[in-house]
């Protein structure tokens, strides 16, 4: 029994090290150019063990993406559940606080996980060709279902004049997420254009995050403050 537990612990340690190394390689090279040999060298585990655990390169990529996805959802799930699943009444000010909190959490996650941002950038360049091959989660863990829930909530807010009527809720969610991702992704470019400034410092990231919050809130909230949103 003790030996079995030791093997399980060793397996967990090995998988974690392999996924961490793979995340770095996929972020640096993209899925197409990444090599399992490089992952093996970076992790300190041989290729045969990697294939034993993950099947192939796509299986390893799936594990890396799922790992990042679960980390992000752990940060956001409580915020979403409090409003989207537990119900309750929310007015314009409460909606403003809710939306600002979601933006801050999402921005902070992207800023603290630049490798994930780079992986997403590679996917964008390649037309999300590898993401299309990944099996989609079902039920409450499905990203589309979560996205739809948020969009439906924004649709209710729009119907009650909490947010401006001209906004498409689906596009609004997508644009908010992309603003956070593209800012983090563009920091090296900003640094080239304005070398006298440090865009990656904690203070600069805080300023950028709050500017996105203000931009979204001032742009989407209805002028009159709206009604009560359930």
From TrEMBL:
UniProt KW DNA-binding keyword: yes
MF (Gene Ontology): DNA binding
DNA-binding region of this protein: 35-54
Entry keyword Membrane: no
One record GO biological process: regulation of DNA-templated transcription
PROSITE patterns linked to this entry: HTH_TETR_2
HTH tetR-type domain ranges (all copies): 12-72
Pfam families recorded: TetR_C_29, TetR_N
Origin: domain of life: Bacteria
Keywords: DNA-binding
Protein name in UniProt: TetR family transcriptional regulator
Organism expressing this protein natively: Tengunoibacter tsumagoiensis
Lineage: Bacteria, Bacillati, Chloroflexota, Ktedonobacteria, Ktedonobacterales
